[in-house]
Design brief:
Blueprint lengths: L7 E4 L3 H10 L5 E5 L15 E2 L8 H11 L6 H21 L5 E2 L2 E2 L1 E2 L9 E2 L6 H14 L4 E5 L1 E9 L2 E9 L4 E6 L3 E3 L20 H9 L3 E2 L4 E8 L11 H5 L3 E3 L7 H4 L8 H14 L5 E4 L5 H7 L1 H9 L9 E10 L2 E3 L11 E3 L4 E2 L11 H19 L10 E4 L16 H11 L6 H17 L6 H22 L22 E4 L5
Parallel strand pairs: 1-2, 1-12, 2-8, 12-19, 18-20, 21-22
Antiparallel strand pairs: 3-7, 4-5, 6-7, 9-10, 10-11, 13-18, 13-22, 14-17, 15-16, 16-17
Helix pairs in contact: 1-4, 1-11, 2-3, 3-11, 5-14, 12-13, 13-14
Bound molecules: flavin-adenine dinucleotide.
Flavin-adenine dinucleotide binds next to helix 1, strand 2, helix 4, strand 9 and helix 11.
Length: about 525
Amino acid sequence: MGNKEFDFIIIGSGIAGLYTALLAKETGTVLILTKGSLDECNTKYAQGGIAAPIGHGDSPQLHYDDTMAAGAGLCDPEAVRILTEEAGDRIADLIDLGVPFDTQFGAVALTREAAHSVPRILHAGGDATGERIEVTLSRAVRSSHRITIMEHFLATDIIVRDGVACGVRAFDSSVGSWEEFKSSNIILATGGAGRLFKLTTNPEIATGDGIALAYRAGAEITDMEFIQFHPTAVRFPGVPPFLISEAVRGEGGLLRDVEGRRFMPDYTPDAELAPRDIVARGTVAQMRKTESDRVFIDVTHLPRKTITTRFPTIYRFCLDHGLDITKGMIPVAPAAHYMMGGVRTNAYGETNIEGLFACGEVACTGVHGANRLASNSLMEVLVFSKRIIERAGGRAPSPPRKSNMDIHSGLKARDSRGIATPLRLAILQSLMWDDAGIIRSKEKLEEAGAVLAAWHSTLGTATDRPYYELCNMVLVGRLMIEAALIREESRGAHFRTDFPEPNPAWEKHIVFKNTNA
Ligand SMILES: Cc1cc2nc3c(=O)[nH]c(=O)nc-3n(C[C@H](O)[C@H](O)[C@H](O)COP(=O)(O)OP(=O)(O)OC[C@H]3O[C@@H](n4cnc5c(N)ncnc54)[C@H](O)[C@@H]3O)c2cc1C
């Protein structure tokens, strides 16, 4: 192998990794480490679009208000202000890079999604927004001689010396050996952790690795109890959950139970357009009431042309599985979708470890609070990637994020005697889904926490990618469960039957920091 020292090391090749790499190459050499092929990521599955307050009648203030309302008291106002004020410029950057957003009457087309007060979602290829962004950015990355791409390299450790991040250890899974790379700017862009749950819209790469790497290195991890469950993932027998975008409800799709009855107005006046957590819980309640494992989303009343042009991917996917959605209702159920928490950063993507940055779904910038507003995540990536590269060049000390928080020094030991330790991914996923999913309680969380604690204490040394991922998932699962146990209230995406109401005393963040790092 040639040079092992770079000005920037970026871990991950979704929108966060690719966009940051394209900005970083203007100031130095860049290495992208990615554990699969370059195009394996959550980003390419994003359907609905990307939020920006650029339409008539919209403003950064309105976008700010909607984001703060969805976040249920836990958004960082400064981060949201930055997001909503810088969004328009980042859209202009994407257009310059060649992202082909859909247009209508000569202007960028905008649609509305749940909990947005006006249409502000840009989309591309109808419902193929993420794929169009990923293809455009990866083409630009591949054609730059200043960016080195290493595919099938799984980052396993952040190397920290004297409190400063200075390198990355990575496992080359194509040959089974380890390499070390040096840099004084290391950017985690490893995405989310949906694969911890039995039902998820996320692809296989979403195993929470970045959280585990950062935690082991001594970075602060926060808001891990807030997992967004999407209310509408397709439920076809034997087919992994496939997302039916929020935009389908935005365009007039209605939720009906197995008896064909529209039920969301029974739960909230906003009905299908309420925030995701409310629609997901309403859906679970209705599934229980009707003793069914599904509900339906109905678009049969919409014009055929609207369906086929606005949602060509969904239309084609369902047709391939024998359902013409212009004529029949789509069976759906909730699935784990997005991780609001992550590696705690300030407004420049800096973590508490000098030289270590985080952006994208792995990061917690404070934008989403207890619940993400639909289509804010792709925009969050662009806004904060840009700020990381501005900051990494200067390296001036920047203010830490101000927020009300409780710091927990590590994971508590839990009694694990008598619990078998079959380290099986499927068991972990079922456990997280059943005991730490949409509806939680102290009893269930403690049970799941004890199982994972027992597994954690017996994990051996990993020597292949699946085992590395499993070890990371056990650690990340423990952080999620511990946070969900500590937060004795219900807020945003976190719901506990034993504490069903929000409690003003809990308007603060739970932060974990590994004191043994
Ligand atoms: C089905 C679906 C639909 C969505 N729709 C929307 C939408 O319409 N609008 C919106 O704003 N958001 C949407 N989201 C969320 C959004 O797509 C993601 O939050 C966003 O794409 C995350 O980008 P990222 O770059 O942070 O992570 P990803 O795109 O997931 O990329 C992570 C990268 O890190 C790599 N990686 C992970 N671990 C390691 C490791 N240890 N070593 C090396 N590489 C590693 C992965 O291989 C991957 O390349 C959707 C998500 C899904 C799943």
